[in-house]
Amino acid sequence: MKLMEPFTIQHLVIVGVGLIGGSVGLALKRAGAVGRVTGVGRSRENLMTAEARGIVDDWTHDLKAAVADADVVLLAVPMAAYDALLREMADALPADAVVTDAGSTKQSAIAAAQRWLPDARRFVAAHPIAGTEQSGAAAAFAELFDDHLAIVTPDSVSDPAAVARVEALWQAVGSRVIRMAADEHDRLLAAVSHLPHLAAFALVNAVRKQADAARDPFDFAAGGFRDFTRIASSSPEMWRDIALCNREALAAQIDAMQAELAGMKTALLAGDGAQLFEDFSAAKAARDAWLQRR
Ligand code: NAD
What is the CATH number of domain 9-180? Predict the structure, then answer.
């Protein structure tokens, strides 16, 4: 999708200036696509870091005051914070302001907007498919979204002008925008993002519980363990919220993985090397093909 005309936001309010919110601020400034950026958050120290790094021009803890003359508001906070923040900003939002978000689950984001905003047609949910296991404004960088997908999930009642504006924002930060239904987004992301995080947390805990006075298994872990478990260093708060907001789709993916593991366990105990070879080969082929496509 090509931008038809220069895209500019006069006053962007970023609620939650962490890795994602901070990177959006830096990327929009890099693109020359934003006038003033105001940060809103919980931690004074993090907001001061954001200001020192040039992510925001100013910051406040006062959400209502911040959004009062915003043309675009970006929510980049853990999913459990949505209800309180949308409720608080609802009365103060200008009628023509557009609200978007970066949250990892989309049906819950849209439901929260519908619960609290006077005109939820101007809330257009989005999810940048880019990130790291780091948190906070100190971890933000302008290139985070370059050539990564941003999934935008409008529905039949979304205001077309708001959708165009939100898609232009995610393009301006460097991402490739695609549209998808929110329920399809949540099903797909449960498989390729939410389950891997749970699996990484589960593996680290399984190993952690085997430590005893004589031996710590982590002392013998090498590159494979490090690669597999990198995302277990992610924010527990953020991942608790994502798991709870997408619980049914995630539970279905846990079942799918348990079925795979159960099949491998059966083959293992039966000494069925052919079956194991087939399972491992199919997985290797699928992953290699995915890497090739990227
Ligand atoms: P982060 O922890 O780096 O930043 C979140 C920020 O929100 C923090 O500065 C925190 O202080 C602030 N915050 C939390 N509760 C708040 C509240 N009630 N009011 C105001 N500020 C509050 O997290 P992040 O990685 O930037 O994630 C932000 C959102 O983006 C989450 O919804 C997450 O699901 C989503 N997301 C994350 C990634 C990733 O890889 N990290 C990728 C795509 C989407």
Answer: 3.40.50.720
